[in-house]
Design a protein that fits this description.
The chain is α+β, with helices and mostly antiparallel strands. It is 61% helix and 11% strand. The chain is built from 14 helices and four strands. Strand 1 and strand 2 form a beta hairpin.
Length: 308
């Protein structure tokens, strides 16, 4: 299996997060008995809140495709060759992050840079945010695949994120110290000494590491007032239509105190519900894998020398 299919699986995970993906508390058991479009979304939400990336992937992909991802994981993860320089950088980074009192040491090194940033660039942040906000909004407005309602909600989400960035002082000393503590603890918990060791991980081993990393990422965002789990808690899915083969689900949720809605299309495959976009991408990948290689034209024979 190509790396592209692996990326599809992670896109499915990210799509689940972006759509809200449910409204259960993380401590609640995962519901598996009800097989409906909204139950599928809620299950992904609960798994995501538990940082169970493998579970979300399994819920988002048909069984055969999920097994292919697992079987080809190590091969796909090693498609890109690494250099000795890559290995050296990885080892140096992990050694630095896992050293005794690494968070304090790193903060002492970057503190002058943080102060310099505040002095020179902090006042310019609103301008940079406005530029990025305008660029993203323009991309949304030019997207022909989005309806007017979808564009309106996407722009509202962009505005909410922009407002959060503008009011958040990412260089705040205490916040930076907390994030560094989270980062260094995570590096120790991952317990990876070399890049080759990381690339040799099996699927299940990789997913355990990913669970640790995702939990740390969510914890770091929470330091700055962005709770991913709070957003997931606010989601309320509502099935708008369901003919047994396809379904449309409206998802209402709150992102950084901004109420939003999204509509996701789902399809029934062998009695289970999946995101329509995920299934379509998988079909494209299958067609790509099944297509015969383009015939290479035979080399033309050398021209016969002219007879005189």
């Amino acid at each position: 299996m190509s790396m592209r299919l692996v990326r599809v699986a992670f896109v499915a995970l990210l799509a689940a997060a972006a759509a809200g993906c449910g409204n259960q508390q993380s401590s609640a058991p995962v519901a598996t008995s009800a097989n409906t479009p909204d139950a599928t979304i809620r299950k992904s939400a609960d798994l995501l809140k538990q940082n169970d990336i493998a579970g979300v992937m399994q819920n988002a992909l048909p069984p055969a495709e999920f097994e292919k991802v697992k079987a080809d994981w190590t091969k796909a993860n090693n498609e890109r060759p690494v250099t000795d320089e890559d290995r050296k950088k990885f080892e140096e980074t992990m050694a630095r992050l896992t050293a005794p009192d690494a968070d304090k040491t790193i903060y002492a090194e970057i503190e002058p840079q943080l102060k310099q940033f505040d002095a020179q660039y902090q006042q310019q942040i609103p301008m940079y945010v406005a530029m990025g906000q305008g660029w993203l909004t323009g991309m949304v407005q030019q997207n022909k695949d989005l309806s007017d309602a979808d564009k309106q909600q996407a722009v509202a989400a962009i505005n909410a994120l922009a407002a959060w960035v503008q009011k958040t002082r990412f260089t705040d000393a205490e916040s930076v110290k907390k994030v560094l503590a989270i980062t260094t603890k995570t590096a120790r918990d991952l317990n990876l000494k070399s890049l080759d060791e990381a690339r040799a991980l099996t699927f299940d081993q990789s997913m355990q590491k990913a669970r640790v990393a995702l939990g740390a990422f969510k914890e770091a965002l929470a330091v700055y007032g962005f709770s991913v789990d709070k957003t997931l808690d606010s989601v309320k899915p509502e099935v708008l239509s369901n003919d047994g083969k396809t379904a449309s689900v409206k998802v209402s949720y709150t992102l950084l105190d901004t109420p939003l809605t999204a509509t996701t299309q789902m399809v029934n495959v062998d009695g289970r519900w999946y995101g329509k976009d995920t299934i379509e991408k998988l079909k494209e990948q299958q067609q790509h894998d099944a297509a015969p290689d383009k015939a290479v034209p035979a080399e033309a024979p050398p021209a016969s020398p002219d007879k005189t």
